[in-house]
Design brief:
By secondary structure, this protein is an alpha+beta fold. The chain is built from 6 helices and 13 strands. The protein has helices spanning 3-11, 35-39, 54-62, 137-145, 159-163, 169-174, and strands at residues 18-24, 30-32, 49-50, 64-66, 72-76, 79-85, 90-94, 100-102, 107-108, 110-115, 121-125, 128-132, 152-153. The mean pLDDT is 93.
Length: 177
């Protein structure tokens, strides 16, 4: 977490949390969701405005974490901005040398792989569960064919409970949890 964020938290410890305003899609892209977009439906249907500012994206990614309930958030100074997830909290990018990176560019170590009913590939890593980016499926197929990964079957709706994450903190809040 950035030092300026830690300082803001110490100075203003009781700022209300924000829900519904930020989303992470299945390709590792961040979206800002204003009131109009939120009213149009959940994140998977109504994404909002794609963030393109590299420094803002880097700031979000440096200050991205999960709370004790598995809700992912961006700590924006003293305010916790909960993230709506299209699929998983991480999106993995495969590298030609066999390495795997998170959508924030940091390398991860793969523990296991999973394949859902729609053919999407997930990797369980030292940073948690994530979806393999669709553009990297040829590299993923190479890894499976080489025997580096042996995907286990999984249902996409089982992933949040199995790996302890919440896709929609906004829906959880509305349900009173």
């Amino acid at each position: 977490m950035d030092d300026i964020v830690k300082a803001a938290l110490a100075k203003w410890p009781n700022v209300p949390h924000c829900h519904g305003w930020l989303g992470l899609d299945a390709r590792g892209q961040w979206y800002m969701r204003d009131d109009r977009v939120q009213a149009a439906g959940p994140f998977a249907r109504s994404k909002g405005s794609l963030l393109r500012h590299d420094k803002l994206i880097a700031f979000i990614q440096r200050n991205y974490a999960a709370d004790e309930q598995g809700q992912w958030f961006f700590q924006n100074g003293p305010q916790r901005v909960y993230v709506e997830l299209e699929n998983t909290p991480w999106v993995w990018r495969l590298q030609p040398d066999g390495g795997v990176q998170a959508h924030d560019g940091e390398p991860v170590a793969v523990r296991s792989s999973l394949l859902d009913e729609e053919g999407r590939l997930y990797l369980d890593t030292d940073r948690g569960i994530g979806l393999v980016h669709t553009a990297d499926m040829a590299l993923a197929a190479d890894a499976v064919e080489a025997g580096r990964w042996q995907p286990e079957a999984v249902r996409v709706d089982e992933l949040p409970a199995r790996y302890g994450f919440v896709r929609s903190p906004e829906a959880m809040k509305k349900a009173g949890h």
